[in-house]
User: Fold this.
Amino acid sequence: MTQQKEKERTLVVIKPDGVQRSLAGEIIKRYERTGLKLVAMKFMLPTPEMVRQHYLVDPEWLRKVGEKSIAAYQKRGQQAPYDDPVEYGEFIVSKLVKYLSSSPVVAMVWQGNQAVGIVRKITGGTEPLTSDVGTIRGDFTIDSYELGDAGDRAIRNLIHASGTIEDAEKEIALWFKPEELIGYRLIQEQILYDVNLDGLKE
Ligand code: CDP
Ligand code: MG
Assistant:
């Protein structure tokens, strides 16, 4: 009965600041109440090597993150600390290694229609200063590119959420063994996806 679209999966990691600020329950609640299905979850301390591998699953990511961060500075009429996006990306990844391996995280896989996009929408934009109100990053934290760069550290924005279906598949394979992903029927899937809604009336 479940179709391919309903099986889209995404990786969410509650970063060390999310766990340390006792926001894990609040964050899980926000994803849970959408109707997405939790198919895997673990509490763990990532190794520096694993964090590096995680951010390099997309070979273009180094350049993209650098370009995005430079553009955010330019939008405010400010000069970014690097002109070269790849060099900026290398700086960011080295800071992310320290950030994500500093203390435990909660890694999860959520499944459902448009799981990647729905999770990104709820999570909010990368920089908490400009993340939309109502998103997790916008509501629960206050960091900015400027403050992170001035402190020579990564932006602390509570969550990692996969950017594309392709990245999600690679990231899930890095964080979870196949047997840790649990296939099961969630009762609410009938009301979310079933075309007929048969058998609900007494
Ligand atoms: O996490 P998201 O997909 O929104 O952003 P990204 O562009 O893939 O960057 C990954 C992570 O790098 C962010 O979540 C930040 O923690 C960090 N970052 C940073 O520390 N400094 C930047 N200028 C840009 C990103
Ligand atoms: Mg990303």
About this structure: The chain has a mean pLDDT of 96. The beta strands are 9-14, 37-44, 105-111, 159-161. Residues 163 surround magnesium ion (ligand 2) (CB under 6 Å). The two ends are 22 Å apart (CA to CA).
